[in-house]
Amino acid sequence: xxxxxxxxxxxxxxxxxxxxxxxxxxxxxxxxxxxxxxxxxxxxxxxxxxxxxxxxxxxxxxxxxxxxxxxxxxxxxxxxxxxxxxxxxxxxxxxxxxxxxxxxxxxxxxx
Length: 111
Fold this sequence. Notes:
The chain is an all-alpha fold. It has 5 helices and no strands. It has helices at residues 15-25, 29-46, 50-54, 71-80, 85-100. Helix 1 packs across helix 5 (85-100) and helix 2 (29-46) runs antiparallel to helix 5. The longest helix is centred in the middle third of the chain and has 18 residues, at 29-46.
């Protein structure tokens, strides 16, 4: 399998984070929502006020990147681009754990 060419995205400076965000792109529905909400919560907790201070700088390009079409993904991932390195490290660790956990399969008769 050929390795993806990198370099144009802000998170390509952080190879592990880039790998996890690429994996997140393949997630669908509630699984992606769960992961992105956790990532947003981490950002809000570790960098209070960051999103409020920087949101006017986020690009308004609709559907340019996979996360642009989802408002929460757009807000969170663009917000991370302004985070301190310690927050990026924490986010990378969160994604490593969150993406390693397999979602439970629903079984008949269980709610």
